[in-house]
Amino acid sequence: MPSAELAIFVVVLLALLFDYINGFHDTANAVATSVSTRAMTPSFAIGLAAVMNFIGALSGTAVAKTIGSDIVMPAAVTQHVLFAALIAAIFWNLLTWYYGIPSSSSHALIGGLVGAAVASQGFGVLKTAGVIKVVAFLVLSPLIGLTVGYLVMTALWWLMRRQTPSHINRVFLKLQILASTAGAFSHGSNDAQKSMGIITMALFGAGLIPKFEVPFWVTLACAIAMALGTAVGGWKIIRTMGGRIVKLEPINGFAADLSSASVIYGSTLLGMPVSTTHVVSSCIMGVGSAKRLLAVRWAVAKQIVTAWVLTIPSAAAVAALTLFFVNLF
C-alpha cells in the first residue's frame, strides 16, 4: 500500500477508534441519571443508549462541517497533523476515563487539532473567527445547561407541589426513560459528527473528494463506532455523574436529562460542537441547585471544572509533542 494511502487509512482508523472511545467514555451522559434513580437497569440503559446514539449519529452533518472546515484550513492540514491530533485526543480520553473524570472529548479533539496544526504550520493555519466561535460555544454551553437545569427543575417542583412523593416517583420513573432516550439521541447527533469531520478533512486534504461533504460511508462508520463504544459502557464516569455530583431522585433525573437533551440537540441544529459531558454535568448541577445549593457536592464539581479548563491546552501540548516525534522518525 503506498505511503499516502497508508497514512489516510491510519487516520481513518484512529478517528473511528476515537469515536469508539468517545462512546464508552460518554456512556454516562445518557444513562447515569437513569441508573442512579433505578429508572432502568444498567444493561437496558446502556443498550438503549447505544441504539439511540447510532440513530442520532445519522441525523445530520452540520457539526462535522464545523469541525472539519471552520477551525483549521482543511487544505493546509496534513495526515501527520490529523494523526497527532487524534493521538492526543485518545490519550486524554483514556487518561480521564481511567481516573473517572467526566472530561470533554470535544475539548480534547479540538485542542489536539489546534495544537498539531499550530505546531506544524504556525497560527496562520487557524481560522480565527471559527476558533473563537467554537471555543465561545464550548464555554457558554455549560452555563446554559446550568441555567436550563435550574429553571426546568424549579418549574417541575412548582407543577408537582401538591403531589405526594410516592406519586411523583412513580410518574417520573417512567418519564425518565423517555428523557434518557432523547439524551442518548442528542449525544449521538453531536459527538459522532466530530470524527466524521476529521475523516472528511483527511479525505478532502488528500484530494479523494472534490468538496467538503461528508460521504455516507463515513457517517455510517462513525455511527457504528459510537454505538459499539457506548455498548461497552464507562462505569467509572457513570458513578461520578450518577451520584457523586448530587443525590438524584427520578424527578431530578428527568429534569437533568430533558435539559441536557434540549441544549445538546439545539447546538447540533446550529452546527456547533459542544461538550456533551460538560452540558450534562452542568445540567445536573443546575437541577441540584434548584433543590438547594448545598445539595450539590461542589468539591466534586470543582474537580470536573478543573478538568474542563485543562483539557484543551493539555491535548494541544500532547498533539504538538506527538507531531514532533512523528516528523522526527
Automatic annotation (TrEMBL):
Its main location: membrane. It comes from the Bacteria. Signal peptide: none annotated. It comes from Heliophilum fasciatum. It is found in: Membrane. GO terms for biological process: phosphate ion transmembrane transport. GO terms for molecular function: phosphate transmembrane transporter activity. This is PiT family inorganic phosphate transporter.
